[in-house]
Amino acid sequence: MRIKVNSWDLKLYWDDIFFAFYNSGFRLRYFIKGGRKGHGLLKNIELKDRHKGKRVFVVGNGPSIKGQNLKLLQNEVTFFVNRAFLHKDYELIKPTYHIFIDPKMATGEWPLTFLDDAAAKNPDVTFLLNGDWYNLPQFQEYKKEYKIYWLCQKLYIQPYFRGKIDLTTIGVGAAVVEQGLLAAIYMGVSDMFFLGVDGNGLCYELTQRDSHFYGTNPENKTKNFSSLYKDLSMMSNSLRRWDMIGKYCSCIGVNLVNLTDGGIMDFTRRMKYQDVVKQSNSHR
């Protein structure tokens, strides 16, 4: 009997094997660079179950949030990311957490003053930053000035992952919004809502449309054709990670809901943003 082999399923299978080796390399690198202590992770135990049983909102920077009234998040537990401080209501909302993990901040492609810009509008903000930066000289003054916790969620999530999220050591992670979701799980939340995750930002870029609520990222304007297939591959991997995170949340009993207005992220239940925020907002 002839066995049919789907080439795309085969590719995904080999991708999983590749990322298993990739994870092993990152684990080795993590221990060589000092493990928990070298990445500033020991303090993260303070975050364990900090918001147990509560709901949180993780907000991406997709163009869809331009049509949503984010002021309604003022008294909620919120995670904002990257250039979110450019949003007109950022100062009013005063997000609970602001996440930066992109290596561009360490290389100087993004200025460290992004931290100052966020803190100027939100003095009590807690930053969640990339643990690889913990010992870098340019971050030492910021460690003294701001409330910072460091993340080392570097490992590629696998389809079979069902372990516990532990921010005090290296663990599974993804891009910046997903990092917020995983951090919230560690903090013990029962309901996670995300918005501003359109999932098709690259498609917007390719058609000369705004990929974010503030327009486009200036650094992306220098990309050439050879970077296109890499970006498309990364987008494919990102969508698959989201699907894995959705299945993981179902497995551990965390309610994950998409409040994005439009977009392509149909891997989990959707609800209308207005309907959710009209409910009790005494969860902070």
Describe the model.
The chain has helices at 7-32, 35-38, 90-93, 104-107, 113-121, 140-145, 176-186, 201-206, 228-252, 273-277, and strands spanning 55-59, 77-81, 97-100, 126-130, 147-151, 155-156, 172-173, 191-195, 255-258, 269-270. With 284 residues, the chain is of the alpha/beta class. The strands form 2 sheets. Strands 5-4-3-2-1-8-9-10 form an 8-stranded parallel β-sheet. The chain has a two-stranded parallel sheet with strand order 6-7. Strand 4, helix 6 and strand 5 form a beta-alpha-beta unit.
Detail the topology: elements first, then pairings.
Elements: H1 7-32, H2 35-38, E1 55-59, E2 77-81, H3 90-93, E3 97-100, H4 104-107, H5 113-121, E4 126-130, H6 140-145, E5 147-151, E6 155-156, E7 172-173, H7 176-186, E8 191-195, H8 201-206, H9 228-252, E9 255-258, E10 269-270, H10 273-277
Parallel strand pairs: 1-2, 1-8, 2-3, 3-4, 4-5, 6-7, 8-9, 9-10
Defining traits:
two-stranded parallel sheet, 284 residues, alpha/beta, 10 strands, 10 helices, eight-stranded parallel sheet
Low-confidence parts, pLDDT < 50 over ≥5 residues?
Answer: none
End-to-end Cα distance: 60 Å
Quaternary structure annotation: single chain
Summed up, the domain count is 1
Helical coverage, percent range: 25-40%
Radius of gyration: 19 Å
The largest sheet is: 8 strands, parallel
Q: How confident overall, as mean pLDDT?
A: 92
Portion of residues in beta strands equals: 5-15%
* Structure class: alpha/beta
* Count of DSSP H/I helices: 10
